[in-house]
Amino acid sequence: MADCVFCLIRDGEIPSERVYEDDDVLAFKDVNPQAPVHVLVIPKKHIASLNEIQVDDGELHTQLLLATKAIAAQLNMAEDGYRVVVNTGDYGGQTVDHLHFHLLGGRSLTWPPG
Ligand code: 5GP
Ligand code: ZN
Question: Which residues on neighbouring strands pair with residue 42, listed in sequence order?
């Protein structure tokens, strides 16, 4: 989508600090990090939110999860642990309408969220 911030990041039209990329998945550092490690993992295909994922995209869901796991290991968080968050819709606090996994770590995280 032309006016989608994450599509613009995918296309290199907005700069970002990329930490992982393959044919279908891209990950980059969040511009406003909430933890020492805060990475956003996105499908390159524009999917608006978790509400919009389809069974037909099944392979992509698996790739997103496996990429997230691989990035967590790449950033040395596998042993200590980390959190994956998918804010969805207004109540979920979603502000960018392109599906993204927040990958957070590098410190002990509190629960519950606000
Ligand atoms: P949401 O609120 O939708 O769950 O998460 C959107 C995230 O995208 C926020 O954590 C925000 O800091 C991040 N973000 C918004 N615009 C940009 C940008 O232009 N570049 C990067 N790297 N992150 C962004
Ligand atoms: Zn998009």
Answer: 26
Give the distance (Å) from ligand 2 centre to CA of residue 80.
32
| Residues 79-93 pLDDT 10s | 999 999 999 999 999
- Give me the domains of the chain, ranges plus CATH numbers: 5-105 (3.30.428.10)
pLDDT, one tens digit per residue, over 32-66 is 999 999 999 999 999 999 999 998 888 999 999 99
| Residue with CA nearest ligand 1 atom 13 | 30
Closest CA to 8 of 103, 96, 95: 96
- CA 96 – ligand 2 centroid, Å: 8
| Residue 113 tokens, joined | 């969220």
Q: How far apart are the first and last CA of the chain?
A: 31
46 catalytically annotated: no
